[in-house]
Amino acid sequence: MKKNFLIATIALFAIQCSKSDVKTEVSTDKIAVENLEKSEEISTDSLKIFAGETKKLLVKNITAQIAKGGVESSEEFCNIEAMPLTKSMSDKHGLFISRVSDKMRNPKNIANAEELKLIKNYKKQLLAGEILKPIRTETHYYEPLLTNAMCLQCHGEPGKNIQPKVVAEIAQLYPKDLATGYKDNEVRGLISIKTK
Ligand code: HEC
Question: Taking Cα atoms as reference points, which of 157, 14, 24 lies closest to residue 96?
């Protein structure tokens, strides 16, 4: 099962991020083993695990890319973190997982009113030194996404943390980019999982 998932993920990576409606080679497999019964109420613990897996996968891809010597081509760049990844996780678990932000790079990742409220609140809590907790509502599960030093290579200060080559790639691929200027340990956005 793990192997199938890996193959499906790789297949998805071949698709460029500029294509918004990602073709889903992955769905033929439907990752049946871990799909949940529709009627089953999913536990918050399971959701925590899914969110954690998604984060780990993202970080793994970024780390691998950076270890390889950085961002070589635009195609590689947009595939590092792009929607196919969250899409593959969504298909794997039969849940809709997305990453959203108030200052997004990809306009498709724009936070809605509810998510904006949560982001604002998480920012306030972070400033106050409080622990940021996941939030479960009737229809969603949310977790904050915080920046660390690694994130700044693509979300920090252009020219300072972000290398000129990467600045140019961002400008080309994401002309409406808002997702720079971050510092370490700031609220970058949310993982949002639709449970119903
Ligand atoms: C190698 C470059 C790179 C690094 C490093 C990186 N990101 Fe990103 N990030 C991107 C790109 C490119 C996108 C746009 C993806 C897309 O098109 O969906 C993005 C999008 C996002 C989004 C979705 C919202 C949006 O702005 O579109 C979040 C949230 C995010 N990144 C958080 C992080 C966090 C947190 C880290 C560090 C753990 C990180 N990123 C590290 C390149 C990077």
Answer: 24
